[in-house]
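Appendix C: a fully annotated inverse folding record. The material below is reproduced so that readers can follow the format used throughout the book. The structure is listed first as tokens, followed by the designed sequence.
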């Protein structure tokens, strides 16, 4: 989480990670925490994954099994913000090409690290994680999306 200005903040942001609360990973708890940290009239920027469609069983297991809401889409994030009294100023979904470019660069960076640091104690775990995650995501194209949501706390 990043915040700017005196508390309550003029702006707060989180990208791809829940705000640390007792309900980690809970989208509603993240919105509540950011709303409460942001002064009236302030802005909140959230980067959040969403689903275009439900993943297959293998990917579903990697993403949290049945505990994850695999129907939560782009418009659901907008609606959730409104339910929390926040105005949606702008919302932007990444394209499939942007997601592929991000994932490719992320995977390349991890592989580059492991090649440059073969003796690092985390190298085997990093490589195993990549191998475990890459194939199921490749078999589930157009399943996940990522959106940026600029919100305003009224007031």
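Designed amino acids, in order:
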């Amino acid at each position: 989480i990043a915040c700017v200005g005196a508390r309550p903040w003029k702006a707060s942001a989180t990208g791809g990670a829940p705000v640390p609360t007792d309900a980690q990973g809970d989208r509603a708890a993240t919105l509540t925490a950011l709303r409460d940290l942001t002064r009236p009239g302030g802005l909140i920027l959230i980067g959040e994954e969403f689903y275009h469609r439900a993943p297959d069983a293998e990917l579903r297991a990697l993403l949290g099994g049945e505990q994850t809401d695999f129907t939560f889409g782009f418009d659901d994030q907008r609606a959730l913000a409104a339910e929390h009294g926040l105005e949606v100023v702008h919302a932007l979904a990444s394209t499939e090409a942007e997601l592929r470019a991000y994932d490719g660069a992320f995977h390349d960076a991890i592989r580059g690290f492991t090649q440059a640091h073969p003796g690092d104690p985390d190298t085997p775990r990093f490589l195993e994680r990549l191998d475990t995650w890459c194939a199921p995501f490749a078999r589930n194209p157009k399943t996940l999306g990522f959106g940026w949501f600029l919100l305003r706390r009224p007031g």
